[in-house]
Amino acid sequence: MSEQLVIDPARFARDRVRLTGSIAAAALPRLAEQLHGAGGSIGYEVEGFLSERGHPGLHLRLDGEIEVRCQRCLGALRTRIESRRDVVLVEGADEFAQRSDEDETMDIIPAVPRLDLRTLLEDEVLLGLPVAPCHAEGECRAPEGGPDAAPERVSPFAALVQLKR
User: Fold this and answer.
1) Residue 2: what pLDDT?
2) What is the pLDDT of residue 81?
3) H/E segment holding residue 12
4) CB contact set of 159 (below 8 Å; sequence gap of 6+)
5) What is the chain's mean pLDDT, rounded?
6) What is the number of other CB atoms lying within 10 angstroms of the CB of residue 125?
7) pTM of the entire predicted model
8) DSSP tag of 54
9) Longest Cα–Cα distance in the chain
10) How far apart are CA 160 and CA 165, in angstroms?
């Protein structure tokens, strides 16, 4: 899915279209900034549906593994991406307003005539990432050359003693 994938969400939902595929994590520009190396890939499935109130909706399913940078050791950290979310498009919806009749399992976004699925999938992946990804305690890789490779610090006073001689 390297090209832009734009759909008419109302028609997509009404016709109950189903798309499946895979996307390289590095092909998503905002996600690519957080990747380590090639990054991995993410499988996706998008299926249209109509909500109980007749609004167009999309079932989003993401599954895959990506490589992000550990914030402790700066090495590669494999991160599993698994997401199941329903997105409903509602005319005039304010995505930041709290709705009393909102179903907790569905996200409501403003209805648009054209929707870029690539951007929607990237948003979903970014929402699923940890804020500060780190290896489990004790699993970070040692610096190059092993734990004793760090240069020994010399006391500035020891250097003065050498100069005094």
Assistant:
1) 47
2) 92
3) helix 9-14
4) none
5) 83
6) 22
7) 0.73
8) S
9) 89
10) 9
Sign of CA dihedral 141, 146, 149, 150: positive
Q: Which residue has the tokens 């190059």?
A: 144
Residue 1 near residue 21 (C-beta atoms within 8 A)? yes
Q: Nearest Cα to 85, choosing from 53, 63, 100, 107?
A: 107
The Cα–Cα gap between 40 and 48 comes to: 27
Backbone dihedral region of 138: left (phi > 0), alpha (psi from -120 to 50 degrees) or beta? Answer: left
* Token pair of 87 as six digits: 């997105």
| Residue 49 pLDDT level (bands cut at 50, 70, 90) | very high
Q: Where are the beta strands (DSSP E) in the chain?
A: 6-7, 18-24, 35-50, 56-69, 76-90, 106-110, 115-116
The pLDDT of residue 146 is 47
* Residue 82 token pair: 């698994």
